[in-house]
Fold this protein.
Amino acid sequence: MLAPGCGGDTSQSSAAGHALNVGFTEDQYVLEGPDAGLGMYPLNANIFETLTYLTPDYKVKPLLAERWEFKPPNTWRFYLRKDVKFQNGEPLNAQAVKEGLFDRLAKIEGGSTILAGPDSAKIVDEYTIDFTPTAKNLRVPEQLVHPSNGVVAPGSDIGEKPVGTGPFRFVEYRPKERIIVERNPDYWGQKAKLNRITFRFYPDSNARRLALEADEIDFAYEVPRQDVESLKGKGLKIEASPVGAYEAMFANIHGEPPHDLLGDVRLRKAVAYGIDREALVKNVLDGLATTDQTFVPPSSLEPYASLVKGFSYDPNKAKSLLEEAGWKPGDDGILEKDGRRLELTLVSGFPSAEVHRPIPTFIQSQLKEIGIDVEIVERPDSASYQALIDSGQGDLYLEQGNQNDANPGFLPVLLFYTGGSGASAPYQSLFAPGPEFDRLIAPSLTEVDTNKVRKSVAEAMHYAVDEQAVIIPLAGIYRIYGMNDSVKGFEPHSSFLNVRWNSVSLSG
Amino acid sequence: MGQLTENAGGGPEPVRAIVPGRRVLLHGLLRDRTAMIGIVIVSSFVLAAALAPLLAPHDPNAVDVVRKFAPPSAEFPLGTDYLGRDILSRLLYGARLSIGTAVAATLGISLLGLLLGMLAGYLGGLVDTVISRVVDVLLAFPSFLLALAVTGILGPGLGNLMLAVVAVSWAGYARIVRGSILAEREKPYVEAARATGVSGWRILWRHLLRNIVGPVVVLTTLDMGAILLGISALSFLGLGVKPPTSEWGAMLSEGRNYLSQAPDLMLFPGTAIFLMALGFNLFGDGLRDVLDPRTRRSMNPPYADRPRRAVP
Amino acid sequence: MRTYALQRLALLIPTLLGISLLAFALANLTPGDPAETYLRRVLDRQPTPAEVAETREKLGLNRPFVVQYLDWVGHAVRGELGVSYSTRRPVVEEIGRRIPFTLELAVPAALLALAIAIPVGVISAVYRNRLPDQLVRVCSLAGASVPSFWLALLLISLFAVRFSVVPVAGRQGPASALLPIFALTLTPAAVLARFARSTMLETLGEDYIRTARAKGLPGWLVVGRHALRNSLIPVVTAFGTSLGHLLVGTVVIESIFIWPGLGKLAIDAILQRDYPMIQALVLYSGVIFVVINLLIDLSYTLLDPRIRLGGTGEGAS
């Protein structure tokens, strides 16, 4: 009954030459509907490719598109590579890109980040295609790097048997358990060195780490920070990427009672002042993070990253702000006003509660020092967390998110901009900083000059973080990948959606 | 009843207990070594829990991240955890929750079972049928899974957890009590009492109750250990308290994340649960031995008390 | 014997009905609108009120409770228990797939527990109040007090982390089952041992045993042939209950060892609010338990000729 190899093909791997076992987090593949993306997102199994791709320092480089140009007022012309075939043998051409990318995205509500409409794509010639978003969108090439914008082979069923152009092709998928891909020998670019990759899902980071230690997997996507030292001690290696993610709290400023306290900006600033980020990074995260409070990766805002100042640790200032707002100490040290205690609900978190532990407890004790009683509500997965966003029954929402494309305004627009697509509306209804923010960030969607884009995003972040304290960043997070010594050639990417596997090999 | 433990075998064991006079009881208990050890353990834990504010050297929630994973020292007798909180203080305060919920839940279970069993046994008829059917269905489930499902559905939280545990575990008691009442009901003294015009409830109260209290008390004590383990297990799975509360099961769950670098975090709460359950079990065992006429060498007909379990 | 069996089967029906009702009602106790919850899982976003109303109609949630229940039962007996919110695949498929994995732990653990408990219990009874007995009583009491999840963590800490003898977690190869099985065996072994001891003691006190002894039959013969058989019967019953518990999946152990059995399925379903799965698991566990107990009862009558009649004294209602 106990046949070995349920999940770990280690015995076959050395024989067949180079099969890698990789541990990923939660399986969140959507299999049906316009959002379907088996093999695409959040685990990019390298089956599909996009027109452009993201370098680890957030630059955009050509991939399936050799080059592109912007044709005013609002059209992008992409010149495709001529030597690409899908894994089913069909050639990649403008028709395929129209069907497998632009028309597919047009079916998603709002047309996805690139704002694709049913008539947006026009074939110019066999390898040239024009794309006109439904609204002015100057960030299309930056946005196309996102793996959910992969080019799907026309006629293939993405929920059943995904077919793309990537260096690996689909073998098998078991929901919540694993997805297996194998080398694509006809790949147009640098062919994969590995024969096979088995991606296994471990929503529990502890389990993932244990699997790595026990050699069940050779590589783990994210290793809990507290385990880094012990893993190194066991001969495993850790590779860190540049900063590309954030650990931050969002304040519910449009809440209904009893979650209406954070409508007062002084309260929000008090919270921001009341957290010792140095201690958080150094002691709770074991020094494996930065104290950047830009929310968006600082490298994507250069040279304007310094516009976002952030908050220092100043509990006295916090207390005086609270006093100014009319809160007085009660009997148990918790502040009160008009008979109401200062109680905030901290919802942890995105993508799951266990990613953040023990940060909520740390924050709870910090805020207690300034007289705020924090109740922690944990949610084990993104679906149940989303439910609390939808219902608005929280004050502070703790999230860890990644910048996954080259558009610095991507996350702020997605989550906080009210003029954007309706897809994230629940976020906007809780956190939208308002018209001033919208005004500041709008240019990031319409400016051609990338410098101006960075400036506009930096100014918007300054507004949201420094002036309004709607976004309360806690730390800048970089990705930590754990692997055993035999894994070579891995390029750590700050966005784990954009990890490429064709250069990876196993030694020995 | 003992079913709440995962993998508990056999359900409640056969129990005969006649409550002797107080003197005899005390004497018997003092003489029985196991019972004494059990009482000592239980009472020291209970005392420690009650006096937690006095005994705890620190605030159990005082975070001091710089000093995380500190080894045992004068300042932190059992060391600190992953946020620099004093483990001993957390254990002491956690004792209040763990022991308190176990005792409260067990009492709730036995009282509810007693009440419903009495109603079924004495009133008979439709009431009996309905209650007995419900008992059958409840006993048809492994109670841990059912408690798990109910807690999951009600939502995590110690209150919901206790509610779920009580709701699924009372059936065993009810069945035993009902059985006892049915047996007692036929006895001559009940007839006699009724004949002399003593009211029904009076009979129930005074006569029947005294004969039932014995087994119920023993079972309750025996069960506390199992209920403690069950509640800790549910809490361990994340369905109990929320951070930063230091209930033992939750502490054990947190300790799991630091297994390789700080096994202490897992050792101490687990030992606490183990000792407390042991104390309850020793005491219950000893109590049963003292009260059980069998140990005084009387003969009883075989199979009169087959183990209770679901009868389809 | 035949009538007894039929009687038992007849009593089965109301219990099964009750179980199914409980399983069905349980999922409907959930907070929130079931149609909305269902849609939100399927669509991965908040549904509009129009969509919710439409789904309510489609799922038949506007019908009276009894009608919904009967409809559900109708599907259930045909093995159609809905689709999991998490995996979007039929619930019965997932359950069926995982039963063997749970059996891999439950059966060895149950057998091992029995193999330990019986000899230990017998020895304890035979050497009553002497050293072996004291030892057994202490050990089994301690064993029944150990939280199985703590034992699991201790074992992992020692044998998997410190000494790397077995894998830390996950189902991979026979070695990986050792720790979970040990963790599962302790409590039932302890409880069954105590039980075996007490029934053995009871039997040993019987008249016919004393007679046999008086007749000069050697001790071991008495114990082996006469006492053992009769005292085993209640132990078999207790064992059946243990097995029933184990078959349903041991949630905590499977969760710790990331063992892909029913127990892990249950806790995952509960944490993810996969209501169709929770419903199905509750139903399954009730039915299994009832079936096992029925089999035990019937085997009981085979083993003990005294209990072949309809009336069974205590316990029947």
User: Anything to note?
Assistant: Chain B has a mean pLDDT of 80. The CA atoms of residues 141 and 151 of chain B lie 15 Å apart. The radius of gyration of chain B is 22 Å.
